[in-house]
Amino acid sequence: MSQINRLNTGARTDSTSRINFTYNGKQMQGVAGDTLASALLANGVNVVGRSFKYSRPRGIVGHGAEEPNAIMQIGSGAATVPNLRATQVELYEGLESASVNGWPNVNFDLMSITGWFGRMMPPGFYYKTFMYPAKLWMTYEHFIRKAAGLGSAPVQDDPDSYDKLNQHCDVLVVGAGPAGLVAAREAARAGARVIIADEQSEFGGSLLASINSIDGQAATSWVDELVAELESFSNVQTLPRSTAFGYYDHNFLGILQRRTDHLGISADSGSRQRLHRVRAKRVILATGAFERPLVFAQNDIPGVMQASSVSTYINRYGVAPGNRMILFTTNDNAYQTAIDWHRAGRAVVAVVDSRSAPSGEIVGSGTGNGYSSNSRLRSD
Amino acid sequence: MPNNITRETPLHYFHKLSSHASSAQSPEIFNGQVEFALVVKEAPLSSFLNLRGNGSDKGFCSAVAEVLGVTVPTEPGTYHSNKDSSIYWLGPDEWLLFSCIDASNLEAQLRKALSGHISIVDISGGQTLINLRGDPCALAILLKKSSVYDFAAWPDADINAGRCAQTTFAKATAVVTNKADGSYDLILRRSFADYIAKWLLDAGQEFGCRIEA
Amino acid sequence: MLLIHCPHCREDREEEEYSYSGEAHIVRPLEPEALSDQEWGDYLFFRKNPKGIHHEMWYHAVGCRRYFYATRNTLSYEILETYKVGEQPQVSAQGAAQ
């Protein structure tokens, strides 16, 4: 399969550096800087999973921790990891991935026939229906687990080691987007001991997918400069690939750092993951926001994607997830996605806006940018 | 004490493990590294005395200072030392004396010099001292792995004074002190010495950790 | 995990260095034999267990190995003060209520 949706404009990917990986046994190629999700989209993969019970096909809708559908089994053997989001898995050479549900496979799923008889399956039809007789539970369970799509845990001993550090700091910044980066820089300049953690592979947050400029320079180069300054301080610890997962009494936080997961399925030396137990004098939560998806009938079918995710795939990863787009929005912000889509050389079929008279600056700039106002549909 | 009794430090056998790497249980810990950023070294047999008394009593302090040549630290979490001896603050009325002077001799001298409501206990048989030195970053991470205490907040030690803290170390406890050369001394219970030494080697493995005789 | 200031070490230390030793300022009766069963039972077993400001005893087991007192809000877990045995609290439930 070739990368039919690959653009050569990704700000944080290097399209000259190819990475081979497999998805459900098929050989595919991505590029350096890709996540598994962006690589799958580049290869034109639409269906990545199946829904519970009715086995409706599901595609990628998000680009980060919010992704509900692209749940993958990564690797094989002793170090295999079930149930990782493809949007959070960094691509490495030889990565093996497989969808966790769908049987015999995600594209043709026998369970989807339950969808045809959906009216005959009452809402209360769930796994406990199969509890009796007790001696048959083991038989049922085998198939129910398949239907549930939970991936498979490794059966051998874990080959990796894990460790923990007790950290102390004056200021802990959770999230390295524009707000977190500036907060960390100001604290560092004032001489405070700073730890800044972000769950993504690199700092920058939403700016990594931004084509706007800050202080007269491209957002991404502004990020690079700021990160370089932070790393030059001896009183700053930068923790990329680190998820803050708990905020406990007296400013005690837990952070999980994935140290080698982006290099391969198992660590060559040292610990694979590290737990940071952080005691901070001050904590700044700069975690940003998720886009809230719109609710409409059939909004779970493959091809429906969040507007911010579409922009992220185009701008950050250089992947246009499709050819023709209808944009459905309730605010001005999503018009940027139409502009990005158009710049990617793809067709914006229509913009559906639930408001009667959208008139923001960015709405107007879209008009001269590929789609005419008469192709804009209104729900009213 | 009869002369034919051999006295050995709690970790006397540890450096032998590194020179006989093939027989070690975890060869990768000892010989898998070429570069060593960390060095663990146990101090020779020394005297440890637990001293209790009134630190605001000038007579008490001057008597101890006279015997050891080291002033009693009254500031919490500090120690004073000279070439032969150190006094570590353990509590508001409790100190740990570490010395290369013979313990029974030292105890006798102190008992002679001190009077009143005091306590001196010879705990030499139950303790050992390990010195940890090496790359400052590696040392800092090793300590972060091992203890909840914030050692990075300490100011640098002087040649004859520094900070000390009795705190958790791995799943045991230790008195940790910083030294003027940037290294750290750990004072451990004898019964935990083997466990902590192995812990240090494991925790320091990523940097390369060597045992020095 | 609480962060507790030890009034002897004069440092903030982690909760795992301490052990909790129950309610503070319980005075042992001078003449136990003069007490009724009810009074003796109250002294031995019954504790305030308030919602809010609570004076309690902590033992710095791994550090200086001394007991001290802490005033803690049992709702928010905020530690309002720590003080040495023999001293009196600056913060009390009555004071906080005013």
* CATH fold-type name of chain C: Folate-binding fold
Q: Give me the strand/helix succession of chain B.
A: HHEEHEEEHEEHEEEHE
Question: Structural class of the helix and strand makeup of chain B?
Answer: alpha+beta
Give the domain tally of chain B.
2
Mean pLDDT of chain B: 89
Q: Number of DSSP strands of chain B? A: 11
* Percent helix range of chain C: 10-25%
Average pLDDT of chain C, rounded to a whole number, is 94
* Rg result of chain C: 15 Å
Q: Which structural traits does this protein have?
A:
heterotrimer; A: alpha/beta; Ubiquitin-like (UB roll); FAD/NAD(P)-binding domain; 3 domains; five-stranded mixed beta sheet; 19% helix; B: 213 residues; alpha+beta; Gyrase A, domain 2; 2 domains; eleven-stranded mixed beta sheet; 6 helices; globular
Describe the model.
- The complex is a heterotrimer of chains A (380), B (213) and C (98).
- Chain A is of the alpha/beta class.
- Chain A has 3 domains: 14-148, 2Fe-2S iron-sulphur cluster binding domain, sarcosine oxidase, alpha subunit, N-terminal domain (Ubiquitin-like (UB roll)), CATH 3.10.20; 162-285, FAD/NAD(P)-binding domain (3-Layer(bba) Sandwich); 323-378.
- In chain A, 19% of the residues lie in helices and 27% in strands.
- Chain A is built from 8 helices and 18 strands.
- In chain A, the strands form 5 sheets. A 6-stranded mixed beta sheet of chain A has the order 12-9-8-15-14-13.
- In chain A, a hairpin with a 2-residue loop joins strand 10 and strand 11.
- Residues 372-380 of chain A have low confidence and may be disordered.
- Chain B has 2 domains: 14-44 and 127-212, Probable tRNA modification gtpase trme, domain 1 (Gyrase A, domain 2), CATH 3.30.1360.120; 47-125, Alpha-Beta Plaits (2-Layer Sandwich), CATH 3.30.70.
- Chain B is 27% helix and 31% strand.
- Chain B is built from 6 helices and 11 strands.
- Chain B has helices spanning 14-19, 27-31, 58-68, 103-113, 136-146, 190-203, and strands spanning 38-42, 47-52, 78-81, 85-91, 94-99, 119-122, 127-134, 161-169, 172-178, 184-189, 209-212.
- Chain B has an 11-stranded mixed beta sheet with strand order 6-2-5-4-3-8-9-10-7-1-11.
- In chain B, helix 3 packs antiparallel against helix 4.
- Mean pLDDT of chain B is 89; it is low at 19-33.
- Chain C has 98 residues and is of the alpha+beta class.
- Chain C has a single domain (3-97), classed as Folate-binding fold (2-Layer Sandwich).
- A 4-stranded antiparallel beta sheet of chain C has the order 3-4-5-6, with no helix packed on it.
- The chains are: A alpha/beta (380), B alpha+beta (213), C alpha+beta (98).
- Chains in contact: A-B, A-C, B-C.
